[in-house]
């Protein structure tokens, strides 16, 4: 297996028309993310074992694309920043424009797994931009906000969209974010669990603010994708559902 290098570049696409109902009003745009930069990765699949990006960075063995989707304001960018940089973006909410990406290389059982993580705009007006990226995603993290009922109610519409645009075997996980906001919670954990069970999805509650279950969500996806691409006959099958159930922490526990 060859060693590759990652880029730390960022990219984006132009806004376009939408297909799903908006759940949040217009917001200020995150500057500098509206058009693809010179280092933007191609909108094609990252083939495990093939270099896809130029530039310096960490070595890796296999690479996968992971997309974060869900309504505007549910915390996709914050979750990504928490995972990538270990920080929380508090203060003014700056809505993502089009699409943005970040890379991180994880060590999964001795294998360097590069996750190229696509942070999509939840706003309705960018929806057709993100449609173009679904096809190449190996995994999708579908988020709702436990303090926003509409974002939970929209999960079924998101699943319909995923069904229409993503690969049929895409790895998918449902995340209920912002569980640190206990007083504002309007979506019970059991409701998330019930919906996840209905659709056969692994489920966790997370907090980009405290870091609860954030690393776990990305690590679980990395393990699943690595297993799918490199499984040897002797290796026991990795079960994403079981892993997430076993390792996930409850919202009452505020340790990252
Ligand atoms: N309390 C709390 N606030 C959060 C959490 N995650 C995000 N937020 C806040 O929620 C707001 C929206 O977060 P973003 O990450 O920008 O939301 P987004 O899903 O990327 O939104 P779009 O880019 O418009 O799709 C910001 O004000 C964040 O500070 C969390 O886990 N807990
Ligand atoms: Mg965002």
Automatic annotation (TrEMBL):
InterPro entries: P-loop_NTPase, Small_GTP-bd, Small_GTPase, Small_GTPase_Rab
Listed GO CC annotations: Golgi membrane; secretory granule membrane; synaptic vesicle membrane
Entries under CDD domains matching the protein: Rab26 (cd04112)
Membrane topology of this protein: Lipid-anchor
EC code(s) of this entry: 3.6.5.2
Key words, A-Z: GTP-binding, Hydrolase, Lipoprotein, Magnesium, Metal-binding, Nucleotide-binding, Prenylation, Protein transport, Transport
Biased composition (Low complexity): 12-23
MF (Gene Ontology): G protein activity; GMP binding; GTP binding; metal ion binding
Location of the protein in the cell: Membrane
Any one of the GO BP annotations: exocrine system development
Pfam families, per the entry: Ras
Protein's name according to its UniProt entry: small monomeric GTPase
UniProt source species: Papio anubis (Olive baboon)
């Amino acid at each position: 297996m060859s060693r590759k290098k990652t880029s730390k570049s960022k990219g984006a696409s132009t806004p376009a028309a939408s297909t799903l109902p908006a759940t949040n009003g217009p917001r200020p745009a995150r500057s500098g993310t509206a058009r693809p930069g010179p280092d933007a990765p191609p909108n094609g699949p990252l083939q495990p074992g093939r270099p896809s990006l130029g530039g310096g960075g960490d070595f890796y063995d296999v690479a996968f694309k992971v997309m974060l989707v869900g309504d505007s304001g549910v915390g996709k960018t914050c979750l990504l920043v928490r995972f990538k940089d270990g920080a929380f973006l508090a203060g003014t909410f700056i809505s993502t424009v089009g699409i943005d990406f970040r890379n991180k290389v994880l060590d999964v059982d001795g294998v360097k797994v590069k996750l190229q993580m696509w942070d999509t705009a939840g706003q309705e007006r960018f929806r057709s931009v993100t449609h173009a990226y679904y096809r190449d995603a190996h995994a999708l993290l579908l988020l709702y906000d436990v303090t926003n009922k509409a974002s939970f109610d929209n999960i079924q519409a998101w699943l319909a969209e995923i069904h229409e645009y993503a690969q049929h075997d895409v790895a998918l996980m449902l995340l209920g974010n912002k569980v640190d906001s206990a007083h504002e919670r309007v979506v019970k954990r059991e409701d998330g669990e019930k919906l996840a069970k209905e659709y056969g999805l692994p489920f966790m509650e997370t907090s980009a603010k405290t870091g609860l279950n954030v690393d776990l969500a990305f690590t679980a996806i990395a393990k699943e994708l690595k297993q799918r691409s490199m499984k040897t006959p002797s290796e026991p099958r990795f079960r994403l559902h079981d892993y997430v159930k076993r390792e996930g922490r409850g919202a009452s526990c505020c340790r990252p």
